[in-house]
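From the methods appendix. Each design record in this collection lists the tokenized structure first, followed by the designed amino acid sequence. Records were kept in a plain field format so they could be parsed without special tools. The example shown here is representative of the layout used throughout.

RECORD:
FOLD TOKENS (293 positions):
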């Protein structure tokens, strides 16, 4: 029988553009600002555009006195849009990985770890995120899946893998007799990066101690990393995901040792459906490993 998750996805494509009328109500304007923030727009700019190419053409070839230099146009400062945090505040809030490790080590349960992470102010991603995306599934499960970072849907709902890639992941799990009551799911970074960009090395390193503690508390027998970013982080390698996937390794986090494998991210499968045949091989291997524990 052909697994339905192996078939091409339907209804793919870009969302229809948002049409903004000349007159908006207050609630509509607030909703539009929220949409901009979710898309990664985090600062306001001048109402008047500035043509930098014209400015460059007007600059003298040789540097003369200050009086000879053309005056640069003065932009009227704009207050940030409602709900849009200042970028400068992000950099000043970054904590060191050592501080994060000391804080994470205090958690004796997953609930305590989640509470500590919710109050953690050392990662600038928290400033722009709507919700903390801690985990989903069964903490008593034998298997744990780790992705990279939340997307828009995950940020809104506060749960990992609930968008299109999450729906595909659910179907992949069902193909080997699993669901979210029998797995545990988390991310290397628990807050959504603006515009779904890749987390910076600094953002990843400051969040990593919390993930390590999370893995230690869950203590899964099998761990599966989803995608290149999560795989290279946890396996501490620069090997590409296409060469890394499908290979079992013994991975030790703190005092806990488990069998671990990397596989392709569901979001990649949505873009490259032909790669599903590779992941199907990985899923069969994962099912065999679970049956053996």
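DESIGN:
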């Amino acid at each position: 029988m052909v697994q339905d998750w192996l078939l091409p996805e339907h209804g793919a494509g870009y969302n229809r553009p948002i049409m903004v009328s000349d007159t908006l109500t207050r609630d509509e304007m607030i909703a539009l600002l929220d949409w901009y923030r979710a898309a990664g727009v985090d600062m306001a700019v001048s109402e008047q555009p500035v043509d930098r190419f014209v400015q460059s053409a007007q600059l003298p070839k040789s540097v003369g006195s200050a009086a000879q230099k053309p005056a640069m146009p003065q932009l009227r400062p704009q207050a940030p849009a409602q709900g849009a945090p200042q970028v400068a505040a992000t950099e000043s809030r970054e904590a060191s990985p050592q501080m994060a490790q000391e804080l994470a080590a205090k958690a004796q349960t997953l609930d305590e770890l989640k509470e500590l992470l919710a109050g953690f102010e050392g990662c600038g991603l928290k400033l722009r995120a709507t919700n903390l995306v801690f985990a989903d599934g069964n903490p008593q499960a034998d298997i744990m899946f780790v992705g990279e970072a939340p997307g828009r849907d995950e940020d809104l709902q506060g749960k990992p893998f609930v968008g299109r890639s999450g729906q595909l992941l659910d179907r992949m799990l069902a193909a080997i007799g699993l669901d979210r009551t029998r797995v545990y799911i988390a991310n290397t970074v628990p807050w959504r990066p603006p515009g779904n960009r890749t987390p910076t090395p600094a953002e990843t390193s400051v969040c990593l101690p919390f993930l390590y503690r999370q893995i230690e508390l869950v203590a899964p027998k099998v761990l599966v990393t989803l995608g290149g970013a999560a795989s290279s982080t946890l396996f501490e390698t620069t090997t590409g995901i296409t060469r890394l996937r499908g290979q079992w390794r013994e991975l030790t986090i703190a005092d806990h040792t488990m069998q671990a494998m990397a596989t392709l991210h569901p979001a990649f499968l949505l873009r490259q459906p032909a790669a599903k045949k590779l992941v199907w091989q990985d899923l069969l291997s994962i099912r065999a490993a679970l049956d053996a524990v």
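APPENDIX NOTE: Strands lie at 136-137, 143-147, 184-187, 222-226, 249-253, 256-263.
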